[in-house]
Amino acid sequence: CRPMPTLLPKDHLPPQIDPRKLAATGSSLTGVILFEHVKRLDSAVVGRGDDHINVALNFGLHAEGFLTVSGHATAAVIVQCQRCMQSMDLVLEAPLNLAVVKTEIEAKQLPSDLEPLIVAADKVNTAHMIEEELLLALPFVNYHPTGACQLDYDLSGKAGYSLSSGGAVSVSGDDSDKADDQIGEQGPNKKETPFSILERLKGKLPK
Known about the structure:
Elements: E1 16-17, H1 19-24, E2 28-34, H2 39-44, E3 47-48, E4 52-61, E5 67-80, E6 87-101, H3 104-107, E7 115-118, E8 124-125, H4 126-137, H5 150-156, E9 161-163, E10 169-171, H6 174-186, H7 194-203
Parallel strand pairs: 6-7
Antiparallel strand pairs: 1-8, 2-4, 3-5, 4-5, 5-6, 9-10
């Protein structure tokens, strides 16, 4: 039997584009970029949710006369939750609002609503342009939503302690009274911190 053809969800974007020419004609591009072409982004995340990045680009003219590239890029990636240290899915979205310039001097003259896209020659690498915007949109730290974090489940059944979305430890029920008693025994200047509570839970050595 004949092998099944490889099907792509959308057309690939061209490897290089001439943003000035496209802006002068008011063109638009929609397609995908494969993750294999964005090495820096690929190394900045734990894994990929898809093998491609969805991109929509509009080229035009700004009110102040600058040639622009606008649109958005969306990538499904896997990152690490900084609370439970487990993997989590993240939809990374990067809006684009760029002005095509040739030099850093021109870039400094842009209005505040535009970011510079420095293109010294005629063309720009499409994947590199999109990768730069996605890297800027990548959060510095990532957390599971409240109730979805493994640490929530680990702590919820132990001594009435739970971890809030902000990383703080709360005490409920009878354990709250015990905690108050412990704090009273220690004195006002020795109040337990969330970190000390966590240490006791991890070591399973209640005091």
